[in-house]
Design goal:
InterPro entries: MFS, MFS_dom, MFS_trans_sf. It is built from 17 helices and no strands. It is mainly alpha-helical.
Length: 486
């Protein structure tokens, strides 16, 4: 039993210099004295002299009145700004699904490099390796939107797990075909089966949008965090794949990537409490594609041009450096984007992302001119610094574009909308890589750096001409339309 009575009790008299801890009072005491009064000064309407001790006093002082406000900051005091990422992970289950997401996401940067190394070393043909991986990318562009539509309709766990199992089986089939010298056509068929891999980044962003619907600052921080994770996996995935293939055996990168993908997806989908509810199809109602929403086709074209920036920059840089340090130098661009993404997530979100996107693309166009100028110096450190700076425009552009996709996509179709954006981006990467390789062969690597600048300028013009200029409402209630999961 507590030693204190239920009501506020007088505090014992304290000797000078003593220290005491007392519970906070819940009942207000008498009003405080006016300034200038004390135990040896007259106060009140009565005669002078010290007053008689009142209730709740030990040193002839009234008790502290209770606070008339709640646990928030005091009136007139500026609230303390919290770390947006610490606030992001305050909800139960967010750390668990993020851990699974990270495990499943690293293989996304491993599979292409692993397939190229595995096929090139066993079949002796980089042309065959490139054709196989290009076929897989084309199949993903066709299949991924339909997989995402099923995820929206039936839920992440019910669709993502079997789709991942099919993709893992495709990777293992590719490994066995390469290992046992199967005909070339089997490599194309096996790698095309990996197209069922769910868009784990889009599903994670959908969870954040669902958990923090109505809180644009939290969703902004979540999108920035996810973009930083994308860049981190882009740096770690290829390095890990190359190391495994070189240190163990050519098929090691594909094998480890398949295991990580399945393990991470199982961990991710096991967190059902954070999963957005499914939106089943109503009888007689066929949901329209997000591409039919005004402004969405133009935004997808912007993503396509932005992907061309990344694809051309990578190919041109690898050709210009041409050596064992080419990978680390290229990784600086992703590292710059990683740092900028974390910083951008701490900034105030754009009230109108449609107006901020052109501003981000202006910055990208200007910074992409850095590698073009640095290539004229012939200095590798100067080029490395220019690539680091050029990457710092990537994350703000992608975060703003992702936010715009979330606001344009109809409720209950967010996975499909995000996957369409990723598909457009990957299509641009492929086109940019092909154009960059052609320009390197015909004009030289230094001159070919003009291609990323031109692609960024094209994306800027498309964004100014086609993205919505009206203020968009914040994030429709994705996954909150009253449908139940399952």
């Amino acid at each position: 039993m507590s030693p204190y009575p239920p009501q506020a009790a007088p505090v014992p008299a304290l000797s000078p210099g003593a220290l005491a801890l007392a519970p906070r009072y819940t009942e207000p005491g008498p009003p405080p004295r006016p300034r200038g009064t004390g135990p040896d000064r007259p106060h009140g309407p009565g005669p002078g002299g010290p007053p008689a001790p009142g209730p709740g006093t030990g040193r002839d002082r009234p008790p502290r009145p209770s606070r008339p406000y709640g646990p928030g900051p005091r009136p007139g005091r500026r609230p303390r700004v919290r770390n947006p990422y610490a606030r992001l992970f305050a909800l139960p289950g967010t750390r668990a699904f993020t851990a699974g997401n990270l495990v499943a996401r690293i293989p996304m940067g491993m599979f292409t490099v692993s397939a190229v190394i595995m096929i090139a070393e066993t079949r002796g043909s980089y042309a065959l390796a490139g054709a196989v991986t290009a076929t897989g990318l084309a199949a993903t562009a066709v299949v991924a939107p339909f997989t995402a539509r099923l995820v929206d309709r039936y839920g992440q766990a019910r669709v993502a797990v079997p789709a991942t199992v099919l993709a893992v089986l495709g990777s293992l089939a590719l490994l066995l075909c390469v290992r046992h010298q199967a005909p070339h056509w089997t490599l194309f068929a096996a790698y095309a089966a990996t197209a069922t891999t769910p868009n784990i980044g889009g599903m994670s962003r959908s969870r954040w949008a669902h958990l923090y619907r109505g809180d644009p600052e939290a969703v902004h921080a979540a999108n920035a965090f996810e973009q930083a994770v994308d860049e981190l996996c882009f740096v770690l995935g290829p390095v890990l794949a190359a190391f495994l293939c070189a240190a163990l055996f050519p098929e090691a990168g594909t094998l480890v990537g398949a295991v990580l993908l399945l393990t991470g997806m199982l961990l991710f989908t096991a967190q059902r409490a954070t999963e957005p509810p499914a939106v089943p199809r109503r009888a007689g109602h066929r949901p329209r594609s997000p591409l039919r929403v005004a402004g969405m086709p133009a935004l997808m074209v912007v993503f396509l041009a932005t992907g061309a920036v990344f694809g051309s920059l990578e190919i041109v840089t690898l050709a210009f450096v041409d050596g064992p340090v080419a990978g680390p130098v290229m990784a600086l661009q992703a590292f710059g984007s990683f740092l900028a993404g974390l910083a951008y997530g701490s900034a105030r979100p754009a009230a109108d992302p449609g107006r901020r996107l052109p501003v981000c693309l202006v910055a990208m166009t200007v910074l992409m001119a850095g590698p073009l100028l640095a290539s004229g110096t012939g200095s590798l450190p100067v080029l490395a610094g220019a690539l680091l700076l050029a990457g710092m425009a990537t994350a703000p552009t992608m975060v703003t574009g992702t936010t715009l996709v979330q606001r344009l996509t109809p409720a209950g179709q967010l996975n499909e909308g995000m996957t369409l954006a990723v598909t457009a981006l990957l299509g641009g990467v492929s086109a940019g890589a092909a154009a960059g390789g052609w320009l390197v062969e015909h004009a030289g690597a230094g001159t070919a750096y003009v291609l990323p600048v031109a692609a960024a300028g094209l994306a800027l013009c498309l964004a100014v001409a086609g993205t919505p200029r009206r203020a968009l409402p914040y994030a429709p209630s994705h996954g909150d339309s009253g449908a139940t999961a399952g």
